[in-house]
Amino acid sequence: MDWQALRLSLLLAVATTVLLLPVSIFAGRWMAESSFRGKILLEAAIATPLVLPPTVIGYYLLVGMGAHSPLGAGFSELFGRPLVFNFSGLLIASVLVNLPFAIQPAQRAFESIPQDVRDAAQCCGMSFWRSLWAVDLPLAWPGVLTGLTLSFAHTLGEFGVVLMVGGAIPGETKTVSIAIYDQVQSLNFEGAGSMSLLLLLISLGLLVFVNLLGRYAGRLHAYRNV
Amino acid sequence: MRLFAAILATCWSLLVHGADDVPLIAAASDLQTALREVAQAFQSDTGQKVEIVFGSSGNMAAQIRQGAPFQMFLSADEKYVLDLAKAGLTRDEGRLYALGRIVLFVPNHSSLKADEQLAGLRSALENSQVERFAIANPSHAPYGRAAREALQKARLWEPLQPKLILGENVSQAAQFATSANASGGIVAYSLALTPAMTKVGRYVLIRQDWHAPLRQRMVLTKKAGPGAEAFYSFLQQDKARAILARNGFAMPQESR
User: Fold this and answer.
1) How many CB atoms are closer than 10 A to CB B48?
2) A167 to B194: CB separation less than 8 angstroms, yes or no
3) Across the interface, do B69 and A85 touch by the CB < 8 Å criterion?
4) B22 has a pLDDT exceeding 80
5) Over chain B, what HEC string results?
6) DSSP state of A83
7) Does chain B have fewer CB atoms within 10 Å around its N or its C terminus?
8) Are B66 and A18 within 8 A, CB to CB?
9) Cβ neighbours around A214 below 10 Å, total
10) Environment class of residue B197 by beta-carbon count within 10 Å: exposed (0-12), middle (13-18) or buried (19+)?
11) To the nearest 5 percent, what fractions of chain A are helix, strand and coil?
């Protein structure tokens, strides 16, 4: 059992989710409220990771953040090490790939808030932050939570992007799905099977936990509003 | 908020921590067993460690181009090494370290006769007893190319077409060959010798002159330090060559 890889995967999933929390709230709300030329195009662009094969995205990210790209060159100038093939590069790739999973459910949730509720909040003279905190989030948080849960689960299982951007370096970029693939490649099906089972159990457990949390908090919310 | 900060801090510490001094080495998947054994011998002889990452040679060559921290690269196909050398990413053109060999592998449940001339495969084909036959994808996997050449040499390539299943690499071809639907496959000798394969089937070596040699080349990249240099020269010594030979590789006469 490759505990190091499992720890790395969990760390990556947690970090991705935490970074995506503000993104999903602000981008989701902004996308829900605004209408502008090219919005459809932007929405489509955010959704591309859902359609493209992960290894293809991974390859583009590898080239886009690699040593010859402006981004990669600038980063290695600043920190003395390349952006790809380490945890930070993996995290950036993971956040980008998970954008649609985090933003779309949040956006739908914010969209479902009736306009008159928003108008009322504005009439009361609520500031942007206050209305976000007191009106929008209490109504839209299930969507935000769904998005973050999806991102978390998706990151745990992500394979193609990690394979391309990471380089399977133990303790740095060798996540649990890469470790499982490695076991299969070396024809060690028992090792791969037990690791897959553990990953499955952890993911199931976490998803059940989050869903329970959502249900509990929803009930709490309902009582408060009676 | 505090959690957010703590996680950012963790990420930051991971971001700035430097690489330790154990050299990172990229190696082709067909070396899984052999190279681990070599690394163990290296460690018990010199006390030095190496960290080996296994993968597809083409992928790893692309990653070295993008600045991957590999200090040494053992490719299953010398083409990738020579291309990297041309691009100025390696010290020199490296050395040949092994020649890959291919075998006809037949799983226990299959009635196929395993013989050097592939006569058993021919007669099974004529009696339509072949269900599926696995090889690595010849369009990019070196072992797949060798398998195609051998099958062409035996004039079995055309009749076998509708039965072929292609693995992404030779390791996947081996998985296919052991599966219940396959009558057999052509895989790397080094894989056929692993316990996972010997348990479930039998094999026969295919003649080396039936396919272009699978020239495996290794090279030190521009990032190589003393640890990688030591491992590189260790691989050229008799002890390491004996381990490779025992694990299903032919030893090249010349090394250039």
Assistant:
1) 17
2) no
3) yes
4) yes
5) CHHHHHHHHHHHHHHHCCCCCCCEEEEEHHHHHHHHHHHHHHHHHHCCCCEEEEECHHHHHHHHHCCCCCCEEEECCHHHHHHHHHCCCECCCCEEEEEECEEEEEECCCCCCCCCCCHHHHHHHHCCCCCEEEEECCCCCHHHHHHHHHHHHCCCHHHHHHHEEEECCHHHHHHHHHCCCEEEEEEEHHHHCCHHHHCCEEEEECCHHHCCCEEEEEEEECCCCHHHHHHHHHCCCHHHHHHHHHCCEECCCCCC
6) S
7) N
8) no
9) 15
10) buried
11) 80, 0, 20
A188 burial via Cβ count (<10 Å: 0-12, 13-18, 19+): middle
Q: Do B175 and A187 touch (CB under 8 A)?
A: yes
> Within 10 Å of residue A30's Cβ, how many Cβ atoms?
12
The answer to whether the CB of B157 falls within 8 A of the CB of B148 is yes
Phi, psi of B96 (to 5 degrees): -70, 135
Q: Give the minimum alpha-carbon distance from B127 to chain A in angstroms, rounded to a whole number.
A: 32
Shortest Cα distance, chain A CAs vs residue B69, angstroms:
7
Contact residues of B toward A, CB < 8 A: 3-4, 7-8, 10-11, 14-16, 18-19, 24, 26, 29, 32-33, 51, 53-55, 59-60, 62-63, 65-70, 169, 171-172, 174-175, 191, 194, 196-197
CB contacts < 8 A, A to B, total 95
pLDDT for B181-205, tens place per residue?
A: 899 999 999 999 998 899 999 999 9
Contacts of B8 in chain A (CB under 8 A): 18
The amino acid sitting at B162 is P
CA distance B114 to A23: 60
Strand ranges across the sheet with B214-220: B51-55, B24-28, B72-75, B214-220, B95-100, B249-250
**Distance of alpha carbon B227 from alpha carbon A184, whole angstroms:** 29
Positions in chain A whose pLDDT score sits under 50: 226
Question: How far apart (Å, rounded) are the C-alpha atoms in residues A29 and A39?
Answer: 13
Given the DSSP bridges, would you call strands B164-167 and B132-136 parallel, antiparallel or unpaired? parallel
In chain B, whose CA is at the least distance from the CA of A186? B32
Interface test with B, best of A59, A187, A188, A190 (most B CBs within 10 A): A187
- Flag if A187 and B16 touch (Cβ within 8 Å): no
Provide the ipTM.
0.72
